[in-house]
Design a protein that fits this description.
The chain has 477 residues and is an alpha/beta fold. Helix content is 28%, strand content 16%. The chain has 15 helices and 20 strands. The strands form 4 sheets. Strands 10, 11, 12, 13, 14, 15, 17, 19 and 20 form a 9-stranded mixed beta sheet that branches. Strands 7-6-5-8-9 form a 5-stranded parallel beta sheet, covered by helices on one side. It has a 4-stranded mixed beta sheet with strand order 1-2-3-4, with helices on one face. The radius of gyration is 23 Å and the shape is globular. The site of one 2-acetamido-2-deoxy-beta-D-glucopyranose has 3 residues, from loops.
């Protein structure tokens, strides 16, 4: 049997490396009667802080470090290991039937090339990956039937594992595994969750290989950007305008986000973050305080839930013809949105591939921070579109899929062969740049009407967050 298999691989040559092959997978069969090490290839963690993974001869223990959830992944055919304390769920592996509620989980599965195991996915109209769209169209993957509770439960039970996020719909089924890549404090930490997902499919080799490449390529871009842009670091602000809705008690607000991974990314791209207070985010109850803070920014990345036209966005931000000269990002047309790639249903590619491929995300950030950096190579941002310059959204469809079985490819360029162009300060409007200033720019919010986040995070906000989370938006708050 084994002999025939290897002969046919030899005949097929490189074609045999489609994802349907077992290349990069281990212990693909259930255990008969052996207790030798089933997992000679192990994953060890370098950046991720949200989970731990340990190996035993016929099982693995996967822990969510902050919530004491413990998943015991045991080789099918072997007995459930006894003596592990506080087990949240026992999952037989390798998983052959998986469900996922978030588009982020779905993309990790595709990055591992095990999408043939995916049976049910949530929020399918938001899925951007063309090959997952194709599998849904072909009915190889069924959407979770959100309109029918009984049916959803049946779908969930029919899978060996269902990936979900804390607080998500049905996050407490017996076969749920909670995944929280979005809580990691670095872009590489988020990508390293490929090892979390890989453990369920005995896909350690694929996960390690993929992550090592992302890591090396990321570090190469980071090194080059640090060297080239040491003296010119534009200030980046991640902003949101939320109009009054039932979800925020009909009170509009303005927000500057300070998620840790963004800080990391911006710094690694040779730029600086507009640091409000060091809190995760700062919300303002009037555009006044918000605009005061934005006086310090060179680049604005708008994450408003609603995709406003540029002129409407400026109006909502409070920018008028008389005050606009205070803002260099207006004068230089440096207003971006991370929504360039979308599904027909308006889902954002931003919650998919950039989470897995931190190197491609950094490449995008370098180009946003330093637009001339990779001009000769012809690189333009994959996920960011320049709203001020009227760049349009790209809608991705199932027909854009080339191979439904292949591991999703890293869209980043090979950094080794890319020479970053020097910054040219006269090309652009950089404010307040001190030579070699690597620190964040600190804006003191006590100067304005900042909403006390603790006091105002009432039911309305919680409700908005829950909805945003369902849409996979949690990552960006
Ligand atoms: C672990 O799971 C809990 C929910 O049980 C969640 O609140 C927490 O954020 C998760 N933490 C990590 C690091 O995954
Ligand atoms: C299991 O849970 C109990 C009660 O919460 C706790 O006292 C104990 O330390 C936990 N054991 C481990 C290994 O985490
Ligand atoms: C809901 O799902 C159950 C189980 O699949 C099915 O029996 C029932 O007919 C469904 N209800 C509706 C209204 O479709
Ligand atoms: C932001 O600024 C505050 C105040 O200076 C500082 O304590 C904090 O460390 C800064 N945050 C980061 C991530 O640098
Ligand atoms: C904003 O908040 C401040 C301080 O909490 C308060 O004094 C002010 O009236 C609020 N402004 C608006 C427009 O709600
Ligand atoms: C900035 O740092 C680099 C490398 O550390 C150094 O060569 C350069 O002279 C510094 N520039 C200034 C203006 O201090
Ligand atoms: C914010 O509000 C909470 C709850 O009302 C309060 O305990 C806290 O002291 C306030 N923080 C600030 C900085 O005013």
């Amino acid at each position: 049997m084994k002999f025939t298999l290897s002969v046919s691989y030899a005949l097929l040559g490189t074609l045999a490396l489609a994802a349907s092959s077992t290349d990069g997978l281990q212990s693909t069969e259930c255990l008969a009667n052996s207790d030798q090490d089933q997992y000679p290839t192990k994953s060890t963690l370098k950046y991720a802080r949200g989970f731990t993974l340990s190996y035993h001869s016929t099982y693995k223990i996967l822990k969510n470090t902050s919530a004491q959830s413990t998943y015991v992944l045991y080789q099918c055919g072997s007995a459930k290991p006894a003596g592990v304390e506080n087990v949240t769920a026992y999952i037989p592996i390798p998983v052959k039937k998986a469900g996922a509620w978030s588009t982020t989980a779905a993309i990790f599965i595709e990055a591992l090339g095990v999408q043939d195991t995916a049976r049910n996915l949530g929020t399918v109209s938001s899925i951007v990956s063309p090959c997952l769209q194709r599998l849904i169209e072909d009915k190889a993957i069924q959407p979770f039937d959100a309109g029918n509770r009984t049916h959803v439960s049946e779908q969930e039970d029919s899978n060996t594992v269902v990936f979900n996020m804390p607080g998500g719909q049905d996050a407490n089924t017996a076969n749920t595994a909670l995944a929280t890549a979005y809580l990691e404090t670095s872009a590489l930490g988020r990508s390293e969750w490929v090892k979390f997902y890989g453990a369920f499919f005995n896909a350690e080799e694929r996960a390690n290989r993929l992550f090592d490449q992302v890591d090396q390529n990321y570090q190469c871009f980071e090194g080059k950007a640090q060297k080239q842009y040491n003296d010119i670091r534009p200030v980046v602000a991640w902003t949101t305008y939320a109009p009054p809705t039932q979800f925020n008690g009909n009170k509009e607000y303005w927000k500057i986000s300070f998620a840790d991974y963004k800080y990391d990314l911006v710094r690694d791209a040779g730029a600086r973050m507009l640091n409000t207070t060091g809190r995760q985010s700062t919300r303002f109850n009037s555009s006044q305080g918000f605009l005061d803070a934005l006086e310090e920014a060179d680049i604005v990345i708008d994450e408003s839930f609603e995709p406003f036209e540029y002129q409407d966005l400026l109006k909502h931000y409070g920018v008028t013809s008389s005050n606009k000269k205070r803002f260099s990002w207006v004068a230089a047309n440096r207003v971006y949105r991370p929504d360039k790639i979308q599904s027909t249903g308006g889902g954002l590619g931003w919650f998919e591939a950039p989470v897995v491929f931190a190197d491609a995300l950094l490449q995008d950030m370098v180009i946003v921070a330093h637009p001339a950096s990779m001009k000769e190579e012809g690189y333009t941002p994959i996920w960011f579109r320049n709203l001020a310059l009227g760049e349009k959204v790209d809608v991705v469809k199932a027909k854009d899929c080339k191979d439904t079985e292949a591991q999703k490819k890293d869209p980043a360029g090979q950094c080794k062969g890319i020479k970053l162009n020097p910054a040219n300060p006269s090309d652009s409007m950089y404010t307040d740049v001190e030579p070699n200033q690597t620190q964040d720019l600190v804006y003191d919010p006590s100067k304005s009407e900042v909403i006390n986040d603790t006091a105002t995070s009432g039911a309305g906000i919680a409700k908005y967050s829950a909805i945003a989370m369902l849409l996979g938006l949690a990552a960006h708050m």
